[in-house]
Write a structure and sequence with these properties.
The protein is an alpha+beta fold and 106 residues long. The protein has three helices and three strands, in the order H-H-E-E-E-H. It has one domain. It is flat, with a radius of gyration of 20 Å.
């Protein structure tokens, strides 16, 4: 079996560690500038701050999440299909890009 056949094997999968949740956080999506744009964010929980009266609650911290679908528990990853073109309609709507017929450095 060569490498190409191995890659296309029916048992191809994403390693479980690649999609495992990150500690003390969860992936959320925030509405973008259009209804079809969902900005991935990570809600990170913080420990309480110790005080003389038992502890002060700290709010979660929100950061941009650039991990892609791999940390989204609702995502179904098929490495043979590639990632969906989630930004395609948004890019086309802007009318500031040109689709090339072939790969090019122009």
């Amino acid at each position: 079996m060569n490498a190409h056949e191995k890659f296309l094997a029916a048992s191809a999968h994403v390693d479980e560690a690649a999609v495992a949740p990150l500690p003390n956080s969860r992936k959320i999506h925030v509405a973008g500038s259009r209804p079809d744009i969902r900005v991935p964010m990570r809600e990170i929980s913080q420990a309480d701050t110790p005080t003389g009266f038992g502890g002060e609650k700290n709010p979660p911290i929100y950061v941009y999440d650039c991990s892609g679908p791999y940390t989204d528990p609702a995502a179904r990853i098929d490495i043979r299909s590639g990632l969906p073109a989630l930004r395609q309609r948004w890019i086309e709507y802007r009318c500031d890009s040109e689709v090339l017929d072939d790969l090019s450095s122009e």
